[in-house]
Amino acid sequence: MSTQRFSTKPPSGFRDFIGQQVIERNLLVSRISRVYRSFGFEPIETPALENLEILQGSGGQENEKLIFKTLKRGEKLTDELGKSPADVGALADLGLRFDLTVPLCRVVAQYQNEIKLPWKVFHIAPVWRAERPQKGRYREFFQCDVDIVGSDSIAAELEVIQAVVEAFNQVQVSDLVLHLNHRSLIEKIGDKFGFGQKISEFAILLDKKDKLPFEKLKSELETLLGSRLSSEFESILQGELPFEDLKSFCSSSYQSLSYMMEELEKLNLSLARIVFDPSLVRGMGYYTGSVFELRHPSAGCALGGGGRYDGLIGRFSKSPIPAVGFSIGLERLLLLLQEKQSFSDELSVLFIPVMNEALRGDLFSIAKELRANQIAVDVFPGEAKLKNQLKFATSRAYRWVLLVGEEELQSGEFQLKDFSDGSVTKINRQKLLTHLKRLLLPAK
Amino acid sequence: MSTQRFSTKPPSGFRDFIGQQVIERNLLVSRISRVYRSFGFEPIETPALENLEILQGSGGQENEKLIFKTLKRGEKLTDELGKSPADVGALADLGLRFDLTVPLCRVVAQYQNEIKLPWKVFHIAPVWRAERPQKGRYREFFQCDVDIVGSDSIAAELEVIQAVVEAFNQVQVSDLVLHLNHRSLIEKIGDKFGFGQKISEFAILLDKKDKLPFEKLKSELETLLGSRLSSEFESILQGELPFEDLKSFCSSSYQSLSYMMEELEKLNLSLARIVFDPSLVRGMGYYTGSVFELRHPSAGCALGGGGRYDGLIGRFSKSPIPAVGFSIGLERLLLLLQEKQSFSDELSVLFIPVMNEALRGDLFSIAKELRANQIAVDVFPGEAKLKNQLKFATSRAYRWVLLVGEEELQSGEFQLKDFSDGSVTKINRQKLLTHLKRLLLPAK
Predict the structure, then answer these.
(1) Looking at beta carbons, which residues of chain A come within 8 Å of B140?
(2) What CA–CA distance (Å, rounded) separates B246 from A31?
(3) CB B140 within 8 Å of CB B243
(4) Which residue among A274, A298, B181, B186 is least enclosed by CB atoms within 10 Å?
(5) Entry pTM
(6) How far apart are CA B411 and CA B396, in angstroms?
(7) Residues B377-389: pLDDT tens digits?
(8) A4 CB near a chain B CB, below 8 Å?
């Protein structure tokens, strides 16, 4: 007899999902995936682990520090440990991906002879980041990425934004606000207000805008700058730069953003608003052009975001290839949906208790026939008193119970109990299938 | 301009999947999942990473040696490396799961107050093993597990076997042979032929039966035993123990296996045969009772296997809880299906080239309306000559192309090109939807 010696919780920052939670997650993934496919995007799937050299120095900025690294194995590990002092960097060779963009770029580089550009591609999968666990922040979470590789046209931005807005639509999320900005503008702002050499630290801080109280952000920026912030800069920080002012401030950004906004307005997407947000950065250092984010009034943070990363593929490939992508955060979307309403994929299951082991074979045959007609059937998988079997049915919230004993098998008259009102109906075996289809299958 | 400095291949033993490969994998997963649900099994999802103490010593035997371990982070890592000599065991705290059974047992222990037994549960997810990469053996692969927790009745075995056979059926795999054995029998055989103290080494070797040539297996067993194998033992090794001989040899195994075989025969599952296989072990040391495997004449190895593991949950929980499970190996099944026939989820996509950027908005509206009616549409996501856009369509094997220029928009007469024969049909905008539905959507 053993006793429990250690925690059976999932590791800190990780989660277990059971039953309905899994069904909802999968339903969401399949709906998003269907929308992406309806735009002609092709799916890819890449390994959870990548060679560390792929993940490191990829422009993932802060996220690169959060890579879960896996130890080398066998002799290679022993060799490294034999060195004194041991080199931390050399102990690990692989790491869990921290996003889906870096693996996509590796895939483009690796298969560029087979892939025809422009390539419309999507990727829905978990990513891992060794963040300090805290409420609502997980170390394993799903991203639903959609990308266009090999097009430097704004048409590509329009396409990924449309696909993502439509995906939200298909799961009944509207009233989204689309925030837009341009990396060149961020650099211009950084330059103008004196962050020149410290532009990437500046961008990293700016990206924490949502997580930090404004005063804290301000003081960190002032520390970085070594002086107080100007009031003009403060109002930009608060998103108060009027879009028209951008024209003189940074004309290239103005041109491309204004074209994008015009075209987006024409599309009549089901968005609450499209706004220019000069303080929007998006964490990844690999963005080079437009950046965007979808926000919802009921969600504290962005539901998705993305941008153009024209330089990243060139890190892996001989020739630079432009690309733009948009990623939906699955957990944030789920959180929003759970607050709004139940989002489910109900399946009515017929329960059949086993009153006598000798009858199990007959019950299995009945179940098999029903399943062949799309009716889900749970035959009690053990030996227990009828009372306990019915308790089992109740604990699973099963509504319909088919009672079939020896007598019923002989007479061909079965009993169907409805747990919702306790009523029992007699049904002839011949009519069973038709009757149950009507009760248990969703109307077409 | 950067140049490629490192390999962009996936890490050794890992794979990338693109387009149709992903679609096939997902289709298979969704079909198997639908069958499991139709039996009343509930899904679970657990983290990729588990605390190492959960994975180690769990009876995973050989597989425990193959755990990908992740390095501790921050100070904890620095502290360990500061110790001299560094303790390999203390450098890592988490590991990627090597199967889905150990995580399930942890989940049962953790949520035992909420879970009502018997619990019918399934889990479809990747697992990772740091095996020496070789043909057909991957370091990341999917398992499709179905388990019944809390029932010690053979009814549970019958239920998981039925569900798995039905899952194979639903993907058009029949002619499977079900191999059955019992752990007690393996122990009795081990005892009888002198492996007494070395029973687990004996079982590990026996499990390699498929991977080793018979003579090699024989010599390794002889080395372990320290003497030559008897001819009786050799015939058992070759699966030649007649089932009736089991009666005197190990009566408890005989009783439970014969009941199981009788009941399985009655179920009339679409199996080619059900055979007693005294040399069947199944690698995991956690099995305690029946063990089984599904084999197919065209596959070199088992397509799935499982057994009863009544002791494993007790490792994590105060009270022991019996359990039985069956796992389908997704990659082996895919390999078999690919050999047999194409297995696909074709989606016809309509291609719309953009002949003039000014028209893109109008084309987007047309695409939006069609997508709202289940027609997948790919509007070319860049700026290119019509000739190159049509090349793009051909490279994607798109059959239908909708040609809409300024003239067509004004007249409302569109052109639909069929790449299969090069024909072009004129269609009025009013009739477009009906026409395309007939051509592109599968008949109901």
Answers:
(1) 47-49
(2) 53
(3) no
(4) A298
(5) 0.90
(6) 30
(7) 999 999 999 999 9
(8) yes
